[in-house]
Structures are given as structure tokens and as C-alpha cells.
Amino acid sequence: MANHGKRFDDSTASQCLSCYLKALCLPRDLTPEQFGTLGRIVDAPVRLDKRESLVQQGATFSHLYAVRTGSLKQVTDGANSETLLTALYLPGDIIGFDSIGSGHYSGTIVALESSSVCRLPFECLDELSSRMPILRRHLQRNISRTMQEERLRLHQLLSRTAEARLAYFLLGISNRFRQRGYSPHHFRLAMSRGDIGSYLGLTHETVGRTLAAYQAQRLLYVSGRDYHLLDVTRLERLASSTGRRQKRA
Amino acid sequence: MANHGKRFDDSTASQCLSCYLKALCLPRDLTPEQFGTLGRIVDAPVRLDKRESLVQQGATFSHLYAVRTGSLKQVTDGANSETLLTALYLPGDIIGFDSIGSGHYSGTIVALESSSVCRLPFECLDELSSRMPILRRHLQRNISRTMQEERLRLHQLLSRTAEARLAYFLLGISNRFRQRGYSPHHFRLAMSRGDIGSYLGLTHETVGRTLAAYQAQRLLYVSGRDYHLLDVTRLERLASSTGRRQKRA
DNA sequence: CGTTAGGTTGAATCCTCTCAACAGCCGTGG
DNA sequence: CCACGGCTGTTGAGAGGATTCAACCTAACG
Hints:
The structure is a homodimer.
Chain A: H1 11-17, H2 22-25, H3 32-40, E1 46-48, E2 53-55, E3 63-69, E4 72-77, E5 83-89, E6 94-95, E7 108-111, E8 115-121, H4 122-131, H5 133-158, H6 162-179, E9 186-188, H7 193-200, H8 204-216, E10 220-223, E11 226-229, H9 232-240
Helix pairs in contact in A: 1-3, 4-5, 6-9, 7-8
Chain A binds a DNA duplex through helix 8.
Domain Cyclic nucleotide-binding (chains A, B): 26-96
Domain HTH crp-type (chains A, B): 160-233
Protein name (chains A, B): Cyclic nucleotide-binding domain-containing protein
């Protein structure tokens, strides 16, 4: 690093210090000094316009990215020329964990709206983590947790109906907003119906129809990409039921 | 560790040295000394009978396990008293990556047949990895790769028919056997139809019917839990198509 | 102001689930 | 040794849900 000698409260470091998301992307209980060391390797934030892409699928992996504002999607195209939405990133999320293993970004990252992200050079981070067990743990935890959550989530979705899948999805989003300090009942989701469908394995028509059905039952109110969850309890019941006819005991 | 002074070719170390799976669970290009250090922290292998469980869901996380022989499944029960088969482990696989984050095992691990596994104390492994970058990288890669593979796989499955899901699944198994040096065309899968269904989000009837349909088309031959893949090319076509009617361009 | 992408709605088709009945295999226990 | 129940796997019939295809509507944007 060129700025090796800088004090921990220099401009880049304070970027992290002042960031209200630090509880999400950084370990807690860092000493000010550790904080400084870490902040020093963070590059200046990158600004992205809507639809602009951060990295291309297949490009060689070099940085992790922490979402500061806005939201981004990961689209991956498989062998058979189908492209799937494989991840949604909200402020505080770290992008790129899934690309460490192969050395190439596993999908194209596209901004769903104007967004800004922090660049984290992985080499530096890795080198640092060998000397800072607390950081190593934090990274491990973060990877491991997202892996286990996603595994369970996707397996649960596999056997569910569109009704349950959507409820499950919306409640997940709601929780993520809650963790970030936003309202869990009212939020804007910058994804199209098609995006949601791609993520959940449904067609855009089905997504729309299901949302309409929810509205008819007063479970939520949707206007465009604005969502108001009205009856979370009932949505939870829906999400955790298979949505199918009861198998008789 | 009590056995800190042991030479690298002592009994536990040689266990790994002589293990034909070391290419899978250990980094390649280790010096004999590093090899010894690593081998020293590996506990004696654990033997499991069919149906015996290795760890219970929710137990506090302490060890990773490397599968030596046999096969195991991870079953996770969600909130709503449904239990899902969330992972299948074959020789050379590492069990437990998904449990580092939460500190608790994320599912019960059950042997599908008589199996043996190596215990890897995570604390030691982690401590070691701070001094051995090559090991740290290997662990990171392993976690990251399984995470990304699984994410893509499950998202692809979400929008596919039973026909495509099963083909996809069987080809995945086939590849894993190939990597391990077994025949990719003929193998025994110790899972029941119900297990497969749970993993893929299908009912056991559908699994059976689909296998029967494959046999009628001479794509494969199944007898009980013995599988012979006859026409891999055609299976691959099936697996990578959605299985649905072609959407017209 | 026209074009395009996103969204809604309807009708028909197809796939998978549910339910039910039955065959085979295995271990237990009489 | 055989009977028994339990577990696993197979097959069939009917119902329900998601998809495909088509038409139409809206909002955004050059």
C-alpha cells in the first residue's frame, strides 16, 4: 500500500468509521488502530448508475465489494443460454464471496438503481486476515452464514408453490431491511417482476398474479415496486406452509 | 496439542499421507513438514453404522469432518416441522463449512451406509491457517466454491421440471464419482427415492416415475439403488433444458 | 410522439401432487 | 421356519397449480 504510514483517521479510514453500515460489513470490537489498518486498504467508493455493471461474469476475481447505497443483482448465465438472477445485494452486503474459489466472478453484477459500493482488494484483505484473527473469523462467519442460509432457503423453495415462494421471498427482504434499520413493512424493491421470477424460478406472469392475489386478501399492497406488508403474520403462515393441499395424517 | 513433538510420519500423520483422498481435502503442494503439522491435528477416524448420526442439528459447532468412506446426508428441519435433505457427502467432501457462521451444526448428519470420517478440530485448523497461507487459501476456496456451485445449481433447479432436475442431479453425482476416481457410469447411491425427492423438491412417486421413464428411453438402467448411466449425452441435454415446452422466439 | 420495456389479465395445456392400492424386502419375534 | 409389520418402491387416477401463448395497458424515454 502506498499509504502505509497514514494515520487511522485519514480520509479513507474515516470513510468506514463514519459509515453507519460498519456493523454489517466489519467485525465489531475492533480497536481504533485495527480499524485504521482496515480502513486504509479500502479504495474510494465506486458510483454506479442504474443498469450499469460492476463486474462481468468470468472476469478474474480481484476485489470484494461492500454495498454502501442502492441495490444490485447478480445475473449468471448457465451453459444453455439461460440467464438467472442468482443474488440480490442490499446495503451492507458483501459481494464476491462466491468468486474466491474459482478465481473468476461467478456472475455479472448490475446496479438495480443508482448505487455506490466500496472496493476491497482481496489480496490485502487476505494478507491482513492472517495477522488479525478477528477479521479472519468475521470473513469466515460471513461466508459460512450466507452459504448455510442460502442452502436452506433454496431447498425450502424447491418444494413450494408460487404463493409460498413469494411470501418467503418478501419476508426475507423485509428482514434484511429491518436489520439495516429501514422499515420492514414498507420498502421499495428495485427488481422487476421478471427479476423476481428469475430469482424464484417462476414466470413473470405468475409473480404478478400472485401479488394480485395477495392484495385481494389484504396481505399487502403493491404499487409498482413499492411494497407495503400489511399482515406479516399471515404472510409467515403462507411462507412456511408448502402451499399445497394438506397431506392427510 | 499434546502431541506437539511428534514426527510428521507418526501414525495420525501417515493416515493422511496414505489417504488416496488427500488431493480432495488437503491442499496440494504441501511440504512434508507442513503435511506432518496438519496430519497431527487430525483425530482418529470415526466409524459410523448405517443410519447412525455424526452430529445433531443445533449442537455447538466444534469440528469439521472429512468423509473417508461411505456417504452421509445432512437433514435439516425448518420451522414448520418439515425436514429436508440439504446435502449429500461423498468421500473427500468436507462436512461442516455451513456451520462455522452460526456456531451450531445446521443439520443432522446421518450415515447412509457404513462410513468413516476424519475429525478436524476447527480451532486448531483455524489457528494453523493463520500461519499457513496455503491452507487458508485452500479452505477459502473450498467453502467459496461449494457455495457458488450450490447457489447456481439450486437456482437452476427452481425453474426446471422433474425430468430435468433428476438428470441434473444424477449427472452431478456422476461427476463427483468421476473426480474421486470411481466410474461415472455405474455407481451405487445409498439414498432412498424419498431422500432424492426431498433433496430435489419432488415427491418420491415422481422420482420413481421419472426414473422409470428414463429407463423406457434407455437413458439409464436402475436396479434398486444401483445406477447405470447409458446415454450421458442425452441426459445432459435433458438436464440443461428446462424440460418445458419451448418458448417460441 | 412513437417505441420499448414492464406489467396485467385471460384461456388452454401440461406437469406434478395427492391419494390409494399393491408388490418386494427386511428385520423382529413368535 | 414362517408370519408379521414396517419401510421402500411402483403404478394408476384425478385434481390443482404453473406455464405458455396472446392481447392489451401503462409508464418511461429518446
